[in-house]
Design goal:
By secondary structure, the protein is α/β, with parallel strands linked by helices. Helices cover about 45% and strands about 20% of the residues. It is built from seven helices and five strands. Strands 2-1-3-4-5 form a five-stranded mixed sheet. Strand 4, helix 5 and strand 5 form a beta-alpha-beta unit. It starts with 5 loop residues before the first helix and ends with a helix.
């Protein structure tokens, strides 16, 4: 097996931290010019904050970096419309995703707005989400607005 991209590994590590905290296992990492700027994870449960998805927490942790034109955001799961809207708003040009089998997200929306979306379809990310959805379906449905 080839080595995991270190930035996707950082996002997966965040997802696992979130799961260990009793939260939803979705992690994210922001990279600028090949360097890790920030990581984040879904903290809706931990902080009782309905908009603190993985990508939102990551961008919040990055703080104000000015332009996002030289950034890539990594997420263990295809971004939802809220996070995709933020990605489009900030003109983040590229999103690298762990998987979209458990949640198709807003891929077409991002692509229609010029964002390059790469779906790695990683078995590790699929398994992590499938196990979580099986264990806590009500929490998952709340997260995706079902």
């Amino acid at each position: 097996m080839e080595d995991m991209d270190p930035f996707m590994q950082a996002a997966i590590d965040e997802a696992r931290k979130g799961l260990a905290e009793g939260g939803i296992p979705i992690g994210s990492a922001l990279v600028e010019g090949g360097k890790l700027v920030a990581t984040g994870r879904n903290k809706r449960v931990q902080e009782n904050n309905p908009i603190l998805h993985g990508e939102m927490d990551c961008l919040n942790n990055a703080g104000r970096i000015g332009s996002y034109r030289n950034t890539v955001i990594y997420s263990t799961l295809m971004p939802c419309y809220m996070c995709a809207g933020t990605i489009v708003q900030f003109k983040i040009p590229k999103v690298v995703v762990g998987e979209s089998r458990t949640f198709p997200g807003a891929r077409k929306f991002m692509e229609d707005h010029g964002v390059e979306v790469i779906d790695l379809d990683l078995p590790e990310c699929v398994a992590m989400m499938e196990e979580f959805i099986r264990a806590k379906p009500e929490l998952w449905n709340e997260d995706i607005g079902e």
